[in-house]
Design a protein that fits this description.
3-stranded antiparallel β-sheet, 2 domains, DUF4194 domain-containing protein, 6 strands, Arc Repressor Mutant, subunit A, 10% strand, globular, disordered C terminus, 10 helices, mainly alpha, single chain
Length: 236
Amino acid sequence: MDQALNILVARLLAHRFLPRKDPLARRALVDEVFRESLERRLEECGLQLLENPYAEHIAVGLKPEMEEWVFGEGENWLSNNMGLPRDAIALLVVVWALIILPKRERQIARASTAGDTQTDMFGTEKPIARGEEVAPGVPEDAVYADFGKKLGGKSRFSMNLGQLAKLGFVIRRNKMIHEGPLLDLMIDYARLAPRIIEGALAEVLKLTGTRIAVDDDASGEDDPENTTETAAGEEV
């Protein structure tokens, strides 16, 4: 088991993510003993396994108690460890809100209809159906029309979108933005979704007529003009 564990950790660190159908990734999801060994090994390095039953991939990320040591060096708190500028972080959050929130709403509704509560932490032998629930993507031109000026203009928008694609957050295809392997893993849904649904970004999305999975009466008290700064402050 030690050799398999070493291989899985090395591959996760080298490739940054692995598909759930990968044999070792699948073993980590269905074999409780192997999963516990993996989590201990990662914890020794200040890392944790990133996975959720709705995502097609698994990855590794920092443990919360290590964030200050990694992001808090120097005078400023780093927003990420991938070299993304603030406007790229803001674009990432916008794309996440447009793609992941509606997809998650459909997945949860589907699981509820099927009576699948996913209460078994390791019960991924019958995972939540994903194929037909993958978001179809959003047009680049539509995202730029709604948010481009707030995110630095056309050149910055295109450059930042290319950087997000290079890092695996999104996939660009035929002028459409699709979900990348890391988009549903590297942003904490439980922490960010309420801020978007109840906060300033939701208000901006409503003002531009863009649909996300929000209640009709959701609104925020923050000034919409501060959306970029609010979004860019999220840790990735």
